[in-house]
Amino acid sequence: MRKPVKALLFFILPFGLLFTAFYLVPIGYAIKQSLYKVERTGTFGPAREVFGGLEQYQRVLENGPFWESIGRVLLFGVVQVPIMLGLALVLALLLDSGLVKGRRFFRLAFFVPYAVPGVVAAIMWGFLYSPNLSPFTTVTSNVDLLSADLVLWAMANVVTWVYVGYNMLIIYSALLAVPTEVYEAARIDGAGQFRTAWSIKIPLVMPAIVLTTVFSIIGTLQLLAEPQVFRTFSSAVSSTYTPNLTVYSTSSIPNFNLAAAFSVVLALATCALSFAFLKMTQRRGGEQ
């Protein structure tokens, strides 16, 4: 074996072992669990796990609350993701424009909410939304942000607050990689700040925007911490409010086989949506 090949294997092996142990093996185990079911001999007989084929998947397809939860997070994503990424793009452009003084401070200030754990952020905002606990009683006493009609968008505000800075940093890093000669050529041609941002900066950072959108699609379908915390503040958030909350609640029964089937279907839906978005952006890029 050649030395370069040995060196390559030496560097790839640690990643390959960890990837297999913490990614491929759990996926394989979840698929295996989803193909089994629990049976009992009599009413109080001992439980035993037997092969059930696709029976758990049939139960998933017939589970109305699960599909309602998927529709709910899709609506969440259609509204929340564009707003979040739009804010992230605007903040990144402002930091890169040179109009903002103290860019280091604002870059850190925008990113700080991402450093707050999601559960802590949800608890903090839950208190702010609660009519009896919030310091903004003028607002919360007149607008019930934890009602069935508004709680989804209250959670969307929490997710936006946490992840705007994270996505801003990815887009801002892409802007820093743009050669300064491109901006100098635009200035020579008489392009102002807005024209440079619209015609040069945004098209050049489009790959970063696509990347953050894919991350956001995956994160939207995996929404768990916020609804789980908000269940303690609002009766409108049920145990099947989001797909991941459905998986968590089902595994707590416990019904690990059905929970595994929910997880596999959710993973397939996430892959399908992400792949469809990537193909759509590639097709538009090819047409341009």
UniProtKB/TrEMBL annotation:
Recorded topology in the membrane: Multi-pass membrane protein
GO cellular component: plasma membrane
Source superkingdom: Bacteria
ABC transmembrane type-1 domain mapped to chain residues: 70-277
Keywords assigned by UniProt, alphabetized: Cell membrane, Membrane, Transmembrane, Transmembrane helix, Transport
Xref: InterPro entries: MetI-like, MetI-like_sf, UgpAE/MalFG_permease
Subcellular localization: Cell membrane
GO biological process, alphabetically ordered: transmembrane transport
Residues passing through the membrane, by range: 7-31, 73-96, 108-130, 150-178, 204-225, 258-278
CDD domains, sorted: TM_PBP2
Pfam families: BPD_transp_1 (PF00528)
Record family assignment: Belongs to the binding-protein-dependent transport system permease family.
Name of this protein: Sugar ABC transporter permease
Organism: Actinoplanes aureus
